[in-house]
Amino acid sequence: MATVVLTAVGTAIGGPVGGAIGAVIGNVIDNQILFKPKGREGARLADLQLQTSSYGTQVPRLFGTMRVAGTVIWATELKETKSKSGGGKGRPSVTSYSYSASFAVALSARPIRSVRRIWADGNLLRGAAGDFKTELSGFRVHAGEEDQAVDPLIASAEGIALTPAHRGVAYVLFEDLALADYGNRIPSLTFEVEADATAVEIGTVAAELSGGRLAGEGLAALDGFAASGADVREAMAPLVEAHGLALRSDAAGLRLTGTAMAAEGEIGAAGLARRVNGQAVDPVERSGGAADSVPVALSLRHYDAARDYQAGVQRVVRPGPGRQEQGVELPVVMSADAARGVAAARLGAAWTGRATMALRCDWRALALMPGLVVSVEDVPGLWRIEEREWEAMAVRLSLRRVPGAGGSVPAGASSGAIVRPVDAPHGPTVLRLVDIPMLKEGLASAPLVVAAASGGAGWRSAALFVIGESGEATPIGRSAPRAVMGTAQDALPPGSATLIDERHRLAVTLLAGDMALLSGDEPGLAQGRNLCLAGRELIQFARAERIGAGRYRLSGLRRGLRGTEWAMATHEAGEDFLLIEEERLVEPLALAGTQAEPGSLLRLSAIGIGDVEPPQAVMAVTGEALMPPSPVHLHAQADGAGGWTIGWTRRSRNGWRWLSGSDTPLGEERELYAVAVMDGAAIVRRAETDAPGWTYAGTMIADDDMAGRTVAVEVRQVGTFATGRAGRIMISV
Questions:
Q1: Model pLDDT, residue 405
Q2: Cβ-based neighbour number of residue 319 at 10 Å
Q3: How far apart, in whole angstroms, are the C-alpha atoms of residue 357 and residue 378?
Q4: Are β-strands 430-435 and 551-558 bridged in parallel, bridged antiparallel, or unpaired?
Q5: CB hemisphere CA count around 178 (13 angstroms)
Q6: Which residues of the chain have pLDDT under 70?
Q7: End-to-end CA distance of the chain
Q8: Phi, psi (5° rounding) for residue 189?
């Protein structure tokens, strides 16, 4: 029969766990019995990583600092906001919908101190500084105290009489969280919860879970732990298994102990019972398990703070025979080194614990408490007493060998690399408006005005508003993703629009240090890669050399692209720089359903999460996409009658690619040129022609009184919507 002390253990804690212990009889010490895993025990790592909303789902008790998904305990229907844009000048109107939701998520069945970072679908929703990356109306943390009040939003929706305060449960509430970034659904959330200011000892965890009936001193401290399960046994089983703990019952009560590294008692040869009831017996029975019964490798899954509290795995291997591998899931936060040490200790204990021994002793062995680590005379090693029974007028002790003091696993285990989302404040929005030529093939029928918005490393997007003449702000949608922009350090000198400019370099400072510019090869450049706007000139660069944080020197320049060679002479230090990427630009007037008119003034405003004051961009529309490029290759030849014949080559806003053996397409309703003869800034003659040539006849020169003077001849192509810039040639008449 078992000792009286051990049969009483079952009533020490009470409840479901009490019944489990009482059924153990004398073997309560061995974690293979008391804490042996059954169908399901404790919190599995996957349980803490997947958000649930099922009725009856258990909310774990959190200790230390953990990352958990939680359980949705209340939510509203999705809130739909409808906005209408467009519909002007023959364009169809566009109705867009945005969605938000309010909901509450339970995190811990134990009070917490704070909630720090929050992830949504793996991306940061809330940074360490408490800044949110997505718009919402409100966020509240209910710490789980026994006197916490009801949440006002839940009370307003459900009625104060029907709204529980969820006292004793820590939860958070999101109010009108914008769902556009998450496919218009509530995202899968995980939370970095700080339930305690420092690490918590296992003994403290056991005492709290058991209502003070189970204690332990000098045990390992946990940086974080999630306790759950049907009873105390299930909640504590992962810790007992991982740390090789034993259960003792003595005058001080029921307590957990670690494996001693030195003998706490000794069993001498004189204490062995060699005769029982007058019959000779063998007092020592020894046995050992097969080597291949012990796993050849053990993998421990845990939470790693160095991996943003995501799961990490440490694997240890023993020498010798065997093919079996074992995995242990431990819902505890620990470093990679600590996890590797625990795994090695468990594998070593399993290897050493193959050796068991049964002793028959006299009545003096009743003083040896189960759980005690002892030495046995003439038997090497340390042994832990697992069972103690009074059997046939003798005390029968069952012992298992435990590892003695020895070396530790060398440090240096790796946590592995993770992709860590940028955690930086959203910061202020920088907004730019540019009027540019068409970037695609085809003809524009309205000015191409695009907006680019950007900010620091944490910036994501901003809401855009068109400002009317009376100052009213009309919402038109959201900006495109973060654009790469900055400023030019120095004024870029003029260069060639027909040759690659290897003489000059463009030095730029980008808006943020994490922005980057990359070099490009010829096929990439041919597809439009590395196109940028410096001032008003469109340029491509072949090479980008990093010269500092967010600073680059660009070379291999293709200058004056898309007819912007006129802007070469307008550069200045500190002018705007913008990398042209179609997916990072929006057409604000197209969003509003209108078109810009050349000569009009456009005002645009933006509001991002981090904007105290909304930035504005103001621009006079020039209609670059409507202007035919200036004629090129102007030449003059005397006509033999006192006049000059001027010729040129037409360019087209619908023909930017090299066409071998064919003319550039016209791109306008008809071919027409405006010619002006200039004496300094004064126009002395105007003319029009429908062919790429014009003669300044001798009679015209005489009538203009320009004989013997040097004049400039400017030629502009007259387009369907606008007249282009001039090509110019000087002649002495």
A1: 60
A2: 6
A3: 13
A4: unpaired
A5: 17
A6: 1-56, 84-94, 405-409, 659-661
A7: 130
A8: -105, 145
Architecture of the domain defined by 632-732: Sandwich (2.60)
Among 420, 370, 417, 418, smallest CA distance to 390 is for 370
Backbone angles phi, psi at 282, to 5 degrees: -85, 115
DSSP string, 398-463: EEEEE--S---PPS--------PPP-------EEEEEE---SSSS--SS--EEEEEE-STT---EE
pLDDT given at position 23: 27
Query: Which backbone phi and psi does 590 adopt, to 5 degrees?
Result: -65, -40
Find out whether 358 and 397 touch, Cβ atoms under 8 Å: yes
By the 8 A CB rule, do 292 and 323 touch?
A: yes
- The one-letter code for the residue type at 158 is E
For residue 34, the model assigns a pLDDT of 41
Crossing angle, helix 336-352 and helix 232-243, to 10 degrees?
90
Determine the distance from the C-alpha atom of residue 687 to the mean position of all C-alpha atoms in its chain, rounded to a whole number.
63
Per-residue pLDDT, 553 = 98
Helix, strand, coil distribution of the chain in percent, nearest 5: 15, 40, 45
**DSSP secondary structure code for residue 363 in this structure:** G
For residue 136, CA distances in Å to 111, 125, 126, 178 come to 25, 11, 11, 6
Q: What is the pLDDT of residue 50?
A: 61
Please give the pLDDT value at position 259. 80
Give ∠ CA 580-583-589 in degrees, rounded to 5. Answer: 90
Rounding to the nearest 10 degrees, give the CA dihedral for residues 67, 71, 73, 77.
100
Instruction: Please give the mean pLDDT across all residues of the chain.
Output: 88
Backbone angles phi, psi at 343, to 5 degrees: -65, -45
pLDDT at 258: 86
By the 10 Å C-beta count (0-12 exposed, 13-18 middle, 19+ buried), 136 is classed as: middle
pLDDT in tens, 365-402: 998 988 899 999 999 999 999 999 988 889 999 999 99
Question: What pLDDT is recorded for position 442?
Answer: 84
Helix axes 232-243, 15-22, angle to 10 degrees: 60
Q: What is the DSSP letter of 152?
A: H
User: How does DSSP classify residue 653?
Assistant: T
Cα distance between residue 246 and residue 400, in whole Å: 12
Instruction: Give dist(CA 692, CA 673) in Å, integer.
Output: 8
Nearest CA to 485 among 525, 542, 429, 436? 429
Q: Please report the pLDDT score of residue 9 as a whole number.
A: 35
The pLDDT value given to residue 648: 96
- Nearest-angstrom CA–CA distance, 399 and 246: 13
Rounded CA-CA distance 624/605 in Å is 22
- Give the residue from 354, 357, 311 showing the smallest Cα distance to 334: 311
Q: Which residue has the tokens 């029009």?
A: 688
Rounded Cα–Cα distance for residues 204 and 160 (Å): 37
Residue linked to tokens 């502009």: 716
pLDDT at 85: 59
pLDDT tens-place string over residues 10-43: 333 433 232 222 222 233 333 433 444 444 444 5
Q: How far apart are CA 441 and CA 444, in angstroms?
A: 9
Q: What's the token pair of residue 594?
A: 């209108």
Task: Report the pLDDT value the prediction gives residue 319, as an integer from 0 to 100.
Answer: 87
Among the listed residues 23, 31, 60, 129, the one whose alpha carbon sits nearest the alpha carbon of residue 400 = 31
pLDDT at position 289: 85
Phi and psi (nearest 5°) for 452? -125, 135
Domain ranges, ordered by start, for the chain = 70-187, 430-624, 632-732
